[in-house]
Amino acid sequence: MAYGDQPTLTAGDVQIPLLGFGTWQLEPEDARRMVAEALRIGYRHIDTAKIYNNEEAVGQGIRDSGVNRDDIFLTTKIWVEDFANGDLQRAAQGSVERLGFTPDLLLLHWPKVQPSFEETLEALNDARAQGLTRDIGLSNFPSKEFRQAQDLSESRLLTNQVEYHPYLKLTPLLETAKALGSSITAWSPLAQGKIADDAAISEIARAHGKTNGQVTLRWLIQQNVIAIPRTTKEGRARENFDIFDFELSNEEVARIHGLARPDGRLGDWIDPAFQWDDVAA
Ligand SMILES: NC(=O)c1ccc[n+]([C@@H]2O[C@H](COP(=O)([O-])OP(=O)(O)OC[C@H]3O[C@@H](n4cnc5c(N)ncnc54)[C@H](OP(=O)(O)O)[C@@H]3O)[C@@H](O)[C@H]2O)c1
After folding, report:
1. What is the CATH T-level fold of the domain 8-192+221-232, as seen in this structure?
2. pLDDT attached to residue 280
């Protein structure tokens, strides 16, 4: 892998570009066009999932871009209906076929009670052993289940992809990821566009001659959190990539942390058997 001078984090011995490009809700034609454009702009990390119904288009976008596959970090996810041993490996094979590439990272999309974590983690490790992904990880796992899953996994779980933006506090989960030698990837890093109207973020943005989106993404990567913003617009993809030439002060970082609020969560689709970390702790 060669990501040039782009900032990366290292989980285990794997380097992951801190800024990626998300593709949820992108129709296939937008996914193909925007993945190719993002790669031409300089993004080297692409996020998709079977449930987004755009893996084939994402693969085409990668081929259209002309960027060497080895210089791209590609993530996809196993949907919850495919968590049983056997189903999971078949689903992973399906993703490889649709993408036309072996992903770098294969995630369990949401935690699920049945089948057991033991069965699903064994199947996920087996998918890796079969060469259906380079590495494995999780998405939407609270700290308790994150630890349980790592205990059951032979391979390191490289990341836990969860909702994270200025309106959410994530301290306990960030600490869990660190303790496990894993990482956090922030989904909805721009709070699905809501940061654009935030007065406090606007003030910080003005001070740096940057936009609200750029300040928010910078706030995430300065925490060593991976951010995967999505856009249908080439101009915004360019804007969101232009975050490597300024730095937020500790005071500015703390001020943005202060925007977290109890109702800040945008996508609470977790099985009621599981509970998000208590952030008051
Ligand atoms: N693992 C999971 O369960 C999970 C769940 C949700 C998302 N994800 C991943 O995370 C990625 C990002 O999350 P997301 O798509 O929910 O939301 P997001 O990236 O926080 O926000 C995307 C929205 O913000 C707008 N936007 C983009 N850049 C902007 C900017 N600089 N200023 C203002 N608005 C901007 C986009 O509109 P335009 O298109 O008009 O620019 C779009 O409506 C997804 O695409 C997906 O890959 C994962």
Report:
1. TIM Barrel (3.20.20)
2. 77
